[in-house]
Amino acid sequence: MNLFVDRYPEEAWIVRAALASSFLALFLGGIMGLIQGLHRTGFLQIVQDSTYYTVLTLHGVSMVLLFTIYFLVGFFQWAVTDSLDRSAEDIRFTKLWYFLMVAGTVMAAAAILGGFTDATNLEADVLYTFYAPLEAHPIFYIGLVTFVIGTWLAGVDWFRSWWAWKKEHPGERTPLRAFMVMTTMLMWYLATIGVAAAILFFILPWSLGLVDSVNSLLTRTLFWFFGHPVVYFWLMPAYMMWYVILPKLAGGRLFSDPLARIVFVLFLLLSVPTGIHHQYVDPGIAEGFKFVAMTNTMFLLLPSLLTAFTVVASMEHGARQRGGTGRLGWLRSLPWNKPAFTGMALAGLMFAAAGFSGMVNAGMNLNYVIHNTLWVPGHFHLTVGTAVALTFMASTYWFLPQITGNGVFSQRLGLVQVLLWFLGMVFMGNAMHRIGLAGEPRRTAEPFYDGVTFDTALGSISELHFQIALGSVILTVSLLLFMAHLFLSWFDVASNPAPDNGVIPEALSGPENAPIVLENLRLWTAIALVLILLTYALPLASIVSANGFFGSAGTLVGTAYEFAVSPFVGVVA
Amino acid sequence: MDSGTESASADAWDGEIETEIGHDEYDPYGTLTLIGIYFVIIALLWVFMYFVEFLGEGPTVM
Ligand code: HEM
Ligand SMILES: [Cu+2]
């Protein structure tokens, strides 16, 4: 038997647990999404306006922190164990990090859910971006930190496996999937420095009452230090599926293994020193620093464009192996009847569309047009909400049998599900973009004000609102189908046998063609650190020198603390 | 619902390959075509952006 679950039952258990946690969060987040989509368009308002932010926080946190990260740690565990072909070094440690993540989730979730009732003082209506001046109950931040520590230990676990493998295979190239996991985790370690510093040094002491105030701009900047690269933490696992699973599903081989490695190294280098592009309209950061962030962002388009080429070329290879011909005729020879393939391909298509709105977001001048409008959620429902979420859901149709040993309930039902998600997002995403161009704000329960009208270039506001509501409903139907289907497959209701197809075919251009220096992860991490220092040292120093670590009003604790830390910043600057 | 036989195989490597194509015989001109189309669309959208945002001369958000 070739199935992962038969070869590595204990690791498969962790993967299943992580996926179950992930889909639970997706389900909860989806229901909140429906409430938002209907509420702010005026079609159905079942919560009070004052509760809207509790709903929105739950939606954001469930979707982008829990659903995505639980899924990817499960997927990475499979990728490392399977590609290195070795068990976890110590399965108790593997369980430890998973349960740390769960403990953190329980704490943060309790704080958010407390916002729905007046019975407790638990509350965390701070949205998933949680920077000051919004303030949550301390348990929310403690939960987040615990969750992130869990992911750090997961990385340690995988590095231990990799190091042990290297000892036994001197001089060999790291298998592609393990290489991708290691570069992604290194990126994650660098990225989370920002959020850890923001919470541990400033927001948590403030929420505990140890200090009176914080420097909001500093916590915002530290948040976005993390807030941009976190999108690559979601995206890189999706890319990994496009590189290693999608070609196989199409009946082809990955076009180039070295190119895939280069892409992941580029993400490690460039993901972090771009965060300031979320702060183009923030006063208090000089234009020059924003310009540097913009330049880095435009460079960061490169690995995504390389990916577009490699992944499409790999699919085309599959189509031609299956008899496809012609300039575009080969598209017909792709296995469109398989939900895993179709879902991922459509996710990639949405990502191409999101590339355009992303370029608008990234431009310093055009950003002013769409900043804080519904255009922005429109953009990221195409990226994380579809390119990532749909890829994760679709891949589950291939992945689930590997880790449960049961076949998928029905391919046709799966196909309907992925098509509905795509359709729902066409409506919702398109309308959100257009209504954002007309100026309608995001994060608003009632975006209607006396005396304010929004001018649309094409179509009316009420028509666009209708499309948002319709899209939300279609997406929710798709989500419910997914959950039901997952349940039926997981518990093997149809007793379908699991296909014995866990082997990933070799790349057309193999790892032996990659320059050896790509393996030198120390070097790439060091360069990434230098780039981060170059882009962040000066802006951070100027934010601190303008208003101090804790804002203008100091406290005894705060001042003592500043006294201890500021020499360090002096050195860095 | 559907039968087990339909679900058994989720990928095309199981018996659907007609000809194996190696590295040297493969010329991805279909990919070139698709990416070319994408670049044309992006370029046109940028031109369109110019008309929407700059020639309209309306007040922008913020
Ligand atoms: C059932 C499907 C979904 C629906 C109906 C939906 C709907 C919405 C709506 C209407 C908003 C805007 C709320 C506002 O700004 O007032 C929103 C925000 C958001 N959505 Fe979704 N969404 C869905 C799925 C997803 C998925 C799959 C993800 C990510 C994996 C996601 C991530 C987010 C994030 C990060 C926000 C921003 C929250 C904030 O502003 O703090 N959504 N969603
Ligand atoms: Cu960003």
TrEMBL record, chain A:
Family: Belongs to the heme-copper respiratory oxidase family.
Residues passing through the membrane, by range: 12-35, 55-76, 96-116, 136-159, 179-203, 223-246, 258-278, 298-319, 340-360, 380-400, 412-432, 464-488, 523-543, 549-572
Key word Lipoprotein present: no
GO terms for biological process, alphabetical: aerobic respiration
Membrane-topology annotation of the record: Multi-pass membrane protein
Family matches, as SUPFAM superfamilies: Cytochrome c oxidase subunit I-like
Chief location: membrane
PANTHER family associated with the record: CYTOCHROME C OXIDASE SUBUNIT 1 (PTHR10422), CYTOCHROME C OXIDASE SUBUNIT I (PTHR10422:SF40)
InterPro entries assigned to the protein according to its UniProt record, in alphabetical order: Ba3-like_Oxidase_I, Cyt_c_oxase-like_su1_dom, Cyt_c_oxase-like_su1_sf, Cyt_C_Oxase_1, Cyt_c_Oxase_su1_BS
Pfam families reported for this sequence: COX1
Designated name of the protein: Cytochrome c oxidase subunit 1
Subcellular location: Membrane
GO CC entries: membrane
Native species: Halovenus aranensis
Keywords: Electron transport, Heme, Iron, Membrane, Metal-binding, Respiratory chain, Transmembrane, Transmembrane helix, Transport
Domain Cytochrome oxidase subunit I profile stretches: 19-531
GO molecular function ontology, one term from the record: heme binding
UniProtKB/TrEMBL annotation, chain B:
Presence of keyword Transmembrane: yes
Domain of life: Archaea
Membrane-spanning ranges: 32-52
Keyword Transmembrane: yes
Protein keywords: Membrane, Transmembrane, Transmembrane helix
Protein name: Cytochrome c oxidase subunit IIa family protein
The species this protein was found in: Halovenus aranensis
